[in-house]
Specification:
Elements (H helix, E strand, L loop, with lengths): L1 E3 L5 H11 L19 H9 L3 E7 L2 E11 L2 E9 L8 H10 L6 E6 L3 H9 L3 E2 L2 H11 L4 H5 L1 E5 L3
């Protein structure tokens, strides 16, 4: 079952993000990695800034989370993670389809250039990678991230 996360789910969202983000360790640039990958204060700030989290729940256990944020004239998919023990089971695909199927704005997704598995996942689900020039414009317009993260990221879109 997919549902909107409650405030009481924040600790579980934190756990899932930091469990699943271990996949980035040794893959993304070393200067972009930290432990925990997303500290609780950073997660709370994301929620305060409008990231609405949804979760995939099975037998009363949250197995995956994905956020969506309304920013100007687009929607951003943010912080998409599935518990390591449950990856490759279709949970991420179900969350992505749930969050994107009835949107009236273009949808953008930012991820690390070196996270090839994430890029492949989004490409398989109908997104396309934008050009380097367009990526630089989009990341600066819709995200609030450091320049180093802009350099080491890519953007995917559901629009041509």
């Amino acid at each position: 079952m997919i549902r909107k996360c409650f405030d009481s789910d924040t600790e579980t969202i934190y756990e899932i993000i930091n469990d699943a983000a271990i996949a980035y360790k040794g893959q993304i640039p070393e200067d972009r990695w930290k432990e925990p990958y997303m500290p609780m204060d950073e997660l709370l700030k994301e929620i305060e800034e409008g990231v609405g989290f949804y979760c995939y729940e099975e037998n009363n256990e949250i197995l995956g989370v994905m956020g969506i944020q309304d920013v100007k004239d687009v929607k951003l998919i943010r912080h998409a993670y599935v518990r390591t023990k449950k990856r490759k089971g279709g949970i991420g695909t179900q969350l992505l389809h749930f969050l994107t199927e009835k949107q009236d704005k273009p949808i953008l997704i930012g991820t690390w250039k070196d996270a090839t598995w994430a890029i492949d996942f989004y490409l398989k689900n109908g997104f396309r990678m934008v050009s380097e020039e367009e990526k630089n414009i989009l990341l600066k317009k819709y995200w609030n991230i450091p320049e180093r993260q802009v350099e080491t990221s890519i953007v995917l879109s559901n629009q041509r």
